[in-house]
Design brief:
Layout: H1 2-24, E1 27-39, E2 65-66, E3 69-82, E4 85-98, E5 111-124, E6 131-144, E7 151-152, E8 155-156, E9 159-175, E10 178-191, E11 195-208
Length: about 210
């Protein structure tokens, strides 16, 4: 009986230690469901020659935007405190696709947007402790087909772009080791001889690491 109590006591102590350290943790990983909107496509240089083989009467026209949907996975580390604000760094990757491309008259090959971004973030501690708003600026690398039916030897052609984004969101603490990312809004663009505006909306789960 005493042994059982000792084991239970040690287990409770270990859990409390982990929960406390996690609550103070500065590092976290997260996964979110993400909706992207990529626009400016009707002015895309990639559209030049897209009507090859079509007559002027049946040449497809293009929408101004596509909406790839997918997931974002990343992590952050907050390392500097300045009053009610904590500053840190964030790295993330997004994979998103859409079945409908930028053509109005045909689905084409769909749309794809893949990106890897890094940046700096600031999280604000409010009087409502479980609610933690944050802002972030990120930049990095993205690959996309712009929702246009571009193929080479039957393979979908993806183009490299510089991507820059600004984010604002709200995390809500559910457990010492887990937050609910209520919503995150992003706005920025892709740059590749032309600017393609990008908007994002995300929601998901954040797990705090015990260090």
């Amino acid at each position: 009986m005493n042994l059982q109590r000792a084991v239970l006591f040690l287990a409770a102590a270990a859990f409390a230690t982990f929960a406390t350290s996690a609550a103070r943790a500065q590092a976290a990983i997260y996964g979110t469901f993400t909706v992207n909107q990529l626009s400016g496509i009707k002015n895309s240089p990639a559209a030049d020659g897209a009507c090859s083989g079509f007559s002027a009467f049946v040449c497809p026209t293009f929408n101004d935007s596509v909406t790839p949907i997918g997931g974002t996975f990343g992590g952050y580390y907050d390392f500097f405190k300045l009053g009610p604000v904590k500053l840190g760094v964030d790295a993330r990757g997004t994979l998103s696709t859409a079945t409908r491309g930028a053509q109005k008259q045909a689905n084409g090959t769909g749309a794809r947007l893949y990106s890897g971004l890094g940046g700096v973030r600031a999280v604000f501690h409010t009087r409502w402790v479980p609610i933690r708003p944050y802002v972030q600026g990120s930049a990095g690398f993205a690959r996309t087909d712009y929702g246009l039916p571009n193929t080479v030897n039957g393979q979908i052609k993806l183009t490299n772009n510089f991507q820059y984004m600004g984010y604002a969101g709200v995390d809500i603490t559910l457990l010492p080791v887990m937050d609910f990312r209520l919503v995150e809004f992003g706005y920025g663009g892709l740059s590749n001889n032309h600017n393609y505006p990008v908007k994002t909306v995300s929601s998901g789960i954040v797990f705090h690491l015990p260090f």
